[in-house]
Amino acid sequence: MDLERLLPVRQSVTSVMDVVKVRRQGLEMALELGFPTPEATKIAVVISELGRNIVLYTKGGLINLIAYTGERKGIKIIAQDQGPGIDNVEQVLEGGYTSSNGMGLGISGSRRIMDEFEVKSVAGVGTKITGVKWLR
Amino acid sequence: METSTIQKLENLLLVSVPRDLMDDEVLRLRRQVVREIRKYHSRWVMLDFSAVDICDSFFGRFIQSTADMVGLMGADVIVSGLQDAVVETMIELGMTLENIRAVLDLDDALALSRTVQRTEMYTQGMKALNGHDIDWDNGWDALDMDSLHRDTHAIAEV
Amino acid sequence: MKDETARPDALTALQNEMVALKVALLQAQVLQAISRDISAARDEQQLLQALAQPGFDADACTVSLSYTVLDENGTPTYLETVASLNADTAQVSPVGMRMNWARHPLAEVLTNHPDKPLYIADARTDPHLSKAARAYLARFGVGAEVAIPLRHAGQWVGLIIFDWQTPHHFSDYERAIFDGISPLMTVAVQNRRLVDRLEKIVAARTAELHESQFLFQTFLDNFPDLAFARDLQGHFILSNRALEITFALRPGEAVGRTLHDFAPQEVADCLWTSQQDVLAQQGPVALEVTLPAPDDPLAPRVKYLVEFPLYDADNRVYAVGGVANDITDRKQAQAERERLQHEVIVTQQQALKELATPIIPIMKHPDGKGSILVMPLIGSIDALRAGDIMRALLAGISAHRAKVVILDMTGVPLVDTSIINYLNRTIQAARLKGAQTIITGISDVVAETIVDLGIDWSYATTLSDLHTGLIAALRVLGLRLSKF
Q: Which of B26, B133, C183, C317 could potentially form a cystine with C309 if both were Cys, beta carbons 3.0 to 4.6 Å apart?
């Protein structure tokens, strides 16, 4: 087991380059944990979506990845920013399912992919999104 | 940084999409595609995704916007080489790329472009001869009437 | 010359009066000084030292202070020497010596003259003394003695004794001061004894407290798991050895510090939150917390922690206590059990999956223009199986370069919206791999359900049976069945 890939990742995100970097780390972490490729890919995409949101809508943020290596294996993604916050969290979480152009799929799609998904947002303070995917 | 390359093959423009697509690259790539279409009068633009292993909604927007632009130039986008894991994720995210053709790889893309070209020529010929639509006995997407109809129509009106 | 003869008498009388006044003044001053020093005295020794003042030097070789121990009737039973000053160390009653009052040689005399100091100018000849008493004093080399009884409200308090090695002549001046000492000392000694008793009680209580605290701490320290109390700011006011060992601290090092000073950030945060919960709820809070194991940092211990409020005398919460119980082994056993169960389920699912997702390559285009796959769906379809079906199908499309996929639903007894949804996604996924999907074998029940549920499946190619599906698939590949 490559322990290096299971170390917690803490990546500040200000540009797409950072997103690319952290999602690749997430992919490797997920594969190392034993997620099959499609699942690992989905996790990486979630990281990507959350990261892109930070880049698109805020001045910058932070993405943390934590590997659960105990009996129950999994990966936790924490994305936080000091952006404007999300006004209509529920709507964002529900919306965008049928949209085909990719707009608005990010957060709602991410929630479907993750087993646990939580969005905490305070207007003017920032947003913290936490997602966990367990290995089955 | 990996750069995308655009190559011409018959009436196809082959665009290999880099693994990690950057925002500024998208603009550059789309602009270049449009230029090349004008240059070669290409009928198809094939976006090859075989190098891409993480495809988020940003890619979805990229494909859709490229398809829209290419459509304005009278050409069609074919997506090829989507990996299984990528396909599964796209479906999960709801990115079904409706109205965009997808093929397995370059071979199929080439076969598709040749077949459609043949039927298009045939259609035009038949139309010229008979003045009515043809019997689709032989052809791709024989059951996907709508999309084929759209294609032939587009050509017929040129 | 009457005047002259009278004059000296008058003068002498006046002078004598003056002297007497001066003496009285001096006595008063000495007694005042003694009084002042007595009230400043902190112990018995200092009480005795207060008796030595400028203007009054008894020149005694030994001065001692004894307390009387009374029985329940107020009768003295023992005399206990509590302080002693001596110019000549040869003869000293050791401090702490107890003497039976009845056997004391002066007891009888003192009992008979309880309110005035007893002056023995010459111990060898004094008529007050019995023969035994004289012998006793002679044995200790006492030539003269003043015994000042200290009595308060008719009760014996103590005794001050001045001893001389040789006979001593007591002047009126000395007597006046010795007489004056008695009431002063009585009050002081009375107070002193009270204070003494209180101090003894306090000391005893303190010792008891220490002992019980020690007992408590010993219990705590030998308690195998964590026990602690923290004040409202999170500072430890109590901690046991197990806690100190957990965070690699020396004994007593935790007290006065907070978890944030020595514990990992997330542990400190977690326990800070739990403390706030306790304060908010004003009641106990139980939680599971993972703590580092000092002997093996890679194997953290899971603790079942109960925290509870501690109330002061005014019924206000002043601290939060906590005890933890190690449940790592239990958790591991539980996890192991779950893992085994999970393993069984996974094995079963695996077997089922292989059974349930067969991909059958039916036909290949002779010119390599793709192939036809058939995937019979059997039984009920849930989210997990839907994922497997999609995955198997995508892999099959790549492997066989499939252009057409026939999903045969003959084996699916009933459908609902979620199954339709899964199938839709499968069709879309296949399309993104360049394959068309034909659905066959929709039973009348399924067809009815689809219509009743209002599901729009007009975009999907649906055909009645596998046979028709196959012919349609061949058409897609540009092939046709024909007879020889």
A: C317
